[in-house]
Amino acid sequence: TRDEVIALRHQYLSPGILTYYAEPMMIVEGKMQYVYDEKGTRYLDAFAGIVTVSVGHCHPSVIDKVKAQTDKLQHTTTIYLHPTIAQFAQKLASKMPQTSGTTGQPLDKTYFTNSGSEANEIAILSARETTGNHDVIALRNGYHGGTANTMGLTAHGTWRFKSNNPSGIAHTHPGYCYRCPYNLEYPSCDLKCAHDVKNVIEYQTSGEIAAFIGEPIQGVGGAVVPPAEYFQIVYDIVREHGGICIADEVQGGFGRTGTHYWAHQNFNVQPDMITMAKGIGNGAPLAAMTTTADISKTMANRVHFNTYGGNPISVTQGLATLEVIDEEGIQENALTVGTYLKDALLELQNKQPLIGEVRGLGLMLGVELVKDRTTKAPAKEECASIVEHAKTLGLLLGKGGLHGNTIRLKPPMCITQDDADFIVAVLDEALT
Ligand code: PMP
C-alpha cells in the first residue's frame, strides 16, 4: 500500500531525496502522456517525469526494442565492442546540424554517460584539457547537475552545499528580459547582459577561459528564452578568450522547442560541444557529450572510464527513442501543440492577474506567476498551491524559476490539442 511505501521510504531511503507534493504521489503505471496512481486515477503528466519522457511513457516500439535487447545481451561494458553503441553514436552524429564554431569540424564524436551531470563533467574536463585553461563561465539561474563541479556551474543557492566549493567558475547574466538586472528594455538595451560577459571575464577570471556552458533555454530556471542575438555575442567574446562553447541540451534537445532539433539552433550559433540527457532515452539512464575530432582527441591519451556509459540497454532505448522522434513527427507535434498551448496561455493571461509572463518555445513553456504585475513580486506560495491544486484535478505540473514561482510545462511530446485544452482549463480553475 501507499502507506507501507511511505514507511519503507522513511526507514530506508535517504531523506535527501526530494519528492513533489505535500502528500507525495505514488505512480504505478505510465501510458504515453498519462500516469496512474495506485488507485488507478489517471493524471496528464505535463512535466514528463522531469522532462525525461520525450515520446511517451512505455512507448510500445521503445519498449519492444528494449525487451528484445534485454533477452539478447543485457550487459557489457565499453572494453568490448557491441553493435548498438556504434549505431547510436552514428545516429546522434547525423542529428548534428552545424560544424563547431571553433574548430570548423563536425560534431561527430560522442562520449556516453548515465546522467546529465556526468555529461557536463566530461565536457568541462575535455574543455580544460583541450585549452589548458581552467576558468569556466556559466549562466546565472542555470542548472547543470548535482556532482561536485556541476553544482558549481549551477547558479542557484537552492542546489548548493556550503561544504562543496568548486573553483574557477564565474557566472554571467542569462538574458532574462522579464527580470532585466539593468532595468532596460530589449532591443534598446543593446544586449548589455550578453556584452557583460566581457566584464565577468575581466574581473572574475584569469582572462584565459576553458569553456562557456549555457542552456540555450533555461529549464530548471523557468523556461528563460534570451534574445535571438544573445548567444552569438557571448560565444564570440568567450572564443576571443580561448574558451570552448558548450550547449547544455539536456532539456531543450530532441525537438522539444518544435522549431529545431536542438534548442541552440534557435539562436544561430555553432557550439563546440553538446551535452544531452533526459529526453535522449525517454527515461533511460542515458546521457552523452558530443564534440569534434580535435577536441575529443585530448582525451585519447588519458584513461577515463565510465562503467555503465553506453551500456546495451540504455543505448537501445536511446536509438529507439530517436527513431520514434523521426518516424512519428514528434518535433512537428511539439511545434503545433506547443504553439496552440502557448497561445491559449497568453489568452489566459488576459483573465488571470497572477500570470506575469508566458514564455518558451514548442513544448518547453513557462508561466511565471507574480503577486503584482508592476512590482513583479514573485508569487512563490501561490505557485506551489496551484501545482498542488492541479494534481487534485488530474494534472501534474513542474515548478521552478529563480524564485520558485514559475510553472513549467514540458509534457511528453506526443500530447494532443485536447490535452492542451485540459491543461489550460485546469490552470484556469487552479489560478481562480
Ligand atoms: N543539465 C540540465 C539543463 C538539467 O536540467 C539537468 C537535470 N535537471 C542536468 C544537467 C543534470 O542531469 P542529471 O540529473 O541527469 O544528472
Domains counted in the coordinates: how many? 2
Instruction: Indicate the CATH class of the largest domain.
Output: Alpha Beta
Summarize model confidence as the mean pLDDT.
Answer: 96
Number of H/I helices: 14
Judging from the principal axes of the Cα atoms, what is the shape? globular
Organism: Algisphaera agarilytica
GO molecular function: alanine-glyoxylate transaminase activity; pyridoxal phosphate binding
Keywords: Aminotransferase, Pyridoxal phosphate, Pyruvate, Transferase, Transit peptide
Protein name: alanine--glyoxylate transaminase
What's the arrangement of secondary structure elements?
Elements: H1 2-12, E1 27-31, E2 34-37, E3 42-45, H2 48-51, H3 60-72, H4 83-94, E4 109-113, H5 116-131, E5 135-139, H6 148-153, E6 169-172, H7 192-195, H8 197-204, E7 209-214, H9 230-240, E8 244-248, E9 273-276, E10 287-291, H10 293-297, H11 312-327, H12 330-351, E11 355-361, E12 364-369, H13 380-392, E13 395-396, E14 398-400, E15 406-409, H14 417-431
Helix pairs in contact: 3-11, 4-11, 12-14, 13-14
The site of 4'-deoxy-4'-aminopyridoxal-5'-phosphate has 16 residues, from helix 5.
